[in-house]
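Honest question from a wet-lab person: if I give you the sequences of every part of a complex, can you actually get the arrangement of the whole thing, not just the pieces? Trying it with mine:
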Amino acid sequence: MDDMPVPPWRERKMSTWAARRPLSYDQIVDAAIVVLDAEGVDGMSMRRVAQELGTGAASLYAHVQNKDDLVDAVLDRVFAEVVIPEPTGDWRHDFIQLAYATRSALQAHRDIAKVLWGKVPTGANALRLADHVYGVFRKMGLPDQLVGWAGPLVFDYITADAYDGSLYASTFGDEKGSAKYFEALGTYFASLPPERFPNIVVMAKTLTTGGGDERFEFGLDVLLTGLEAKARAFDTGSAGASVGSEALGDRGRDA
Amino acid sequence: MDDMPVPPWRERKMSTWAARRPLSYDQIVDAAIVVLDAEGVDGMSMRRVAQELGTGAASLYAHVQNKDDLVDAVLDRVFAEVVIPEPTGDWRHDFIQLAYATRSALQAHRDIAKVLWGKVPTGANALRLADHVYGVFRKMGLPDQLVGWAGPLVFDYITADAYDGSLYASTFGDEKGSAKYFEALGTYFASLPPERFPNIVVMAKTLTTGGGDERFEFGLDVLLTGLEAKARAFDTGSAGASVGSEALGDRGRDA
DNA sequence: TCCATGGTCGAACGCTGTTCGTTGACGAAC
DNA sequence: GTTCGTCAACGAACAGCGTTCGACCATGGA
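Yes, you can. This is the full assembly:
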């Protein structure tokens, strides 16, 4: 009693329907990374990722809680690519190697560092990396409380540098566009009223040149030297951890 | 020849039409800050800001280039609230005061620090603040190139801390929710397999407690001590600025 | 008095993350 | 071998976003 021909408007396209591969969490993360590498973080929309899999955005939600969930998974894939160097015992060397390895992994995936702002990644691979960093800090004699504080301190720095680097690459395209922009910025700085901005005017050229690895290394060096001093302060049993703490008379806001 | 009565569907509501005040750039920025303080950065949409002025989003575009333009203006309003303390000559004290003043201004406006990620603010008030920081760094003996690098280094740190603080306040509401979350995180850390995460497991409790001003001060102290060492290295004429530069054998990415 | 200028503003475009309800494929039970 | 229940796939829709378009009209100068 039901051998009516199927009306055209409810005809199923069996070709696409049969060709569907069942989705999986890993496949979705794979596709997300493909999109990320091709178009950056902003291009990594649910629809775009689904398109990469030949389906619609709604299909992803059977495997992924929401976009944040997906982003976290993507992040941990990136951290999985950090090649953790063999510890040599020279903790300064070991830390710098870890820092470069982390920065490299982040920069290998466009502006992925952008999503790390204010986020403490807790994926397995991120924790593995963090554990190694903590190990280095403990080996250099830093007490555990300060290790907990030093972690975000250095991690935020590495992330910020990686993001900066990706911004130069993406907004200016090539090295030349970047140089042009900074030259214009330098000219602007130099044209400011010297009585209001005495330092910026004088430093106009210096502020807008130099960067890359040399700058990254500078920051690492500053952080390491500071942390080393903290470790020494505790080694000698002195409690002089906070040299500047007497300067805190009026820290409050009053604006 | 045109005294037809106005059809009701194109009738102008003179009440609202007459009551309109002509917009201005400053009024829009004012409204944006009102929205920011009430609902945070994510709530600061063009429509919502326009609503605050009793109009539609399209009206804003006669005065503002785009949303980025508006955000930049809001940012510089915030930087205008930084009360720059009188320099005392003790550069360590002066810098810590500047850092606290900046953090206070940022934290006074919800999660505004969020939009500073990867941005170098170039508004008049931001430049004024930067100029003072540069002045302190130069007074402590840092060569200009390193001053240019130290600026973003400390500015990113202050921004990150301010954003962290605003996240705690917004996602957890009160102090109690925050404590609960970190306690759960600590329990999770403690439950990790110790052979894979030896340091995190041991430090589980330490990693998830302590923060606030004490942590902020720690970071400032680390940065200042590191910068001080850099300044001294140049004072003595030594070129030993990069202690760890021999560790750069294989910095490249290979993933 | 007329006209040109330019701010106002409703509607629309294309995009976002997410939800709903229908559909159909597949494995288990009878 | 048939039936049935479960669940993934998926088109459509919702509410929101930044931005643009074009009609509207109050105002200022000729």
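Two things worth pointing out. Residues 91-173+208-238 of chain B form a domain with the Tetracycline Repressor; domain 2 fold (CATH 1.10.357.10). Residues 144-172 of chain B form the longest helix (29 residues).
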